[in-house]
Design brief:
The complex is a heterodimer of chains A (175) and B (296).
Chain A lengths: L3 H29 L2 E2 L2 E2 L2 H13 L1 H18 L6 H17 L7 H25 L6 H34 L6
Antiparallel strand pairs in A: 1-2
Helix pairs in contact in A: 1-3, 2-3, 2-4, 2-5, 2-6, 3-4, 4-5, 5-6
Chain B lengths: L6 H4 L7 H22 L4 H33 L2 H30 L3 H8 L4 E12 L6 E4 L12 E4 L7 E9 L4 E5 L6 E7 L6 E6 L7 E7 L9 E4 L3 H4 L13 E9 L4 E8 L8 E8 L1
Antiparallel strand pairs in B: 1-2, 1-12, 2-5, 3-4, 3-12, 4-5, 6-7, 6-9, 7-8, 8-11, 9-10, 10-11
The chains are: A mainly alpha (175), B alpha+beta (296).
């Protein structure tokens, strides 16, 4: 039994580190680089989706929890909104990519685009449910689609970086 | 030897086993529970405390972003010309301020009571604050400021700012207040509606300033009767009727005569008039703001 203690501590330390990393990324998203020109970029979502493509459902869910809660604490929407939207996106992405070749760059592009639209749609539904008079058609054209395109562009280098970090930092298979 | 990167393709377990489905449903239920609790205000205290801890970092990052943007702008935007433009903008802004004030005086001259009211124009009691976060959370136009409950900030208070040489102009209304921070709903947000009127006309045209960001522009003056034609170049100021009109802006207590912007185009089709308005201050570029806490 004593053999497991260091491993559990290591795991906890690793999860804390990842939570802090996603909190930092959420700070970048909300304060340092919230927009490109006029359009926002969902840095945390891009990272979470990239990680889900690389590692699968459960590691993706962990990142969704860290990233979603970080955004909820920093953002203006009710706590739980980003968490809910990210969890649904991660589940969707994990199911879609499971039978596919995860090395395909087109896969990351496709799932990021789809997940960004889904993410924007879920948050918009939550806004709508709070009584925000959402102009759906314009909102989709002016906000959701452009953001999805920006996210997709940013997903390519982000995925490459995540993959490199993953290869270097993970000598054994672990979430 | 098995490498880490081979791992995803080697995974054999189904993505959605029964145990995993239960776990995911539980997480989704927790997320929904948090949303409901926060909407009912049960998490405001905790959220406020966490934001107070993160506020210095957010503020530093936001101010850094604005500084970087300004630096890049000055490098790429020909520094000398930019300085000259700034000087001219300041001059124009001073003239605009004078113009608005004079036009407002002009309407009310001869009536002591109205003159007194004009003297009170711009005599706001204000509280200065810094922008902590220029949020674009899901496309909403909301900024977070560095003052909150403990400083006397209340929901519904008007927020003004100056940009370059612009007159002090309305940028939004306090929407939600935490212990040491507050969220300001910008006038450009689609959810923002403020009562407004034209300045400088004998009979002011009254309407509503509605945010248009999510529709692809900034702000629009709507619901203006066609009896008083709007003209390009007219100044728009607050009418101070938002509370009475019970508009969508929560508990709006915006005082009258706060400058908003200038009409840049008018649409007179339909039963009422609308006009595109260029705000005096671009809410996205402000770093310091003033909350109007009352009037002297």
């Amino acid at each position: 039994m004593g053999d497991y203690r260091p491993k559990i501590e290591q795991r906890i330390a690793r999860q804390i580190l990842r939570a802090l990393m996603l909190l930092s990324l959420a700070l970048v998203q909300t304060a340092l680089a919230p927009t490109f020109w006029r359009f926002r970029a969902d840095w945390v979502l891009i990272a979470v989706i990239g990680w889900t493509v690389l590692r699968g459902l459960i590691p993706g869910v962990r990142w969704a929890i860290y990233g979603g809660l970080s955004l909820d604490l920093l953002g203006v929407m009710p706590i739980g909104s980003h968490l809910l939207a990210m969890l649904i996106c991660v589940i969707g992405v994990a199911i879609v990519v499971e039978p596919l070749d995860r090395e395909q760059p087109l896969l990351v592009i496709g799932v990021t685009l789809a997940a960004s639209v889904l993410y924007g749609g879920i948050l918009s539904l939550l806004l709508f449910s709070q009584g925000f008079p959402l102009p759906w058609r314009h909102y989709t054209l002016v906000e959701i689609f452009p953001t999805a395109i920006i996210n997709t562009i940013l997903a390519i280098p982000t995925f490459a970086l995540l993959r490199r970090l993953y290869k270097r930092g993970q000598p054994t298979v672990e979430a | 030897m098995r490498t880490t990167f081979d791992a995803p393709n080697e995974r054999r377990s189904p993505t959605l086993s029964r145990r995993r489905v239960t776990l995911l449903l539980l997480l989704i239920a927790i997320a929904l529970g948090l949303i409901i609790l926060d909407e009912q205000g049960h998490l405001d205290g905790a959220k406020g405390q966490i934001q107070a801890v993160l506020q210095p970092i957010e503020q530093t990052l936001t101010q850094t972003r604005i500084t970087i943007g300004e630096t890049i702008g000055s490098v790429t935007g020909q520094g000398t010309m930019q300085r000259r433009i700034d000087e001219l903008e300041r001059e124009i802004a001073t003239l605009r301020e004078d113009n608005i004030r004079l036009k407002t005086y002009q309407n009310k001259i001869g009536l002591l009571e109205q003159e007194l009211q004009i003297r009170q124009t711009y005599s706001w009691q204000t509280l200065s604050a810094t922008v902590v976060q220029g949020s674009t959370d899901n496309g909403r136009r909301i900024i977070r400021i560095s003052k909150g409950n403990v400083d006397g900030i209340e929901a519904g208070m008007a927020v003004v700012s100056k940009e370059g040489g612009s007159p002090a102009a309305l940028i939004g209304v306090v929407d939600r207040v935490y212990a040491q921070t507050a969220d300001v709903l910008l006038i450009t947000d689609y959810g923002s509606t403020i009562s407004a009127r034209t300045a400088g006309t004998e009979t002011p045209a009254e309407g509503l300033i509605a945010g248009q960001w999510q529709l692809g522009s900034r702000i629009k003056l709507t619901d203006v009767s066609r009896d008083i034609p709007l003209e390009v170049g007219q100044y728009i100021i607050t009418a101070g009727l938002s509370k009475a009109l019970a508009t969508d802006t929560p508990i709006a207590q915006v005082p009258p005569d706060v400058p908003i912007g200038t009409i840049i185009s008018v649409d007179q089709t339909g039963h009422s008039q609308t006009a595109e308005v260029q705000p005096f201050v671009d809410p996205d570029r402000v770093r310091n703001i003033w909350v109007i806490t009352g009037q002297k």
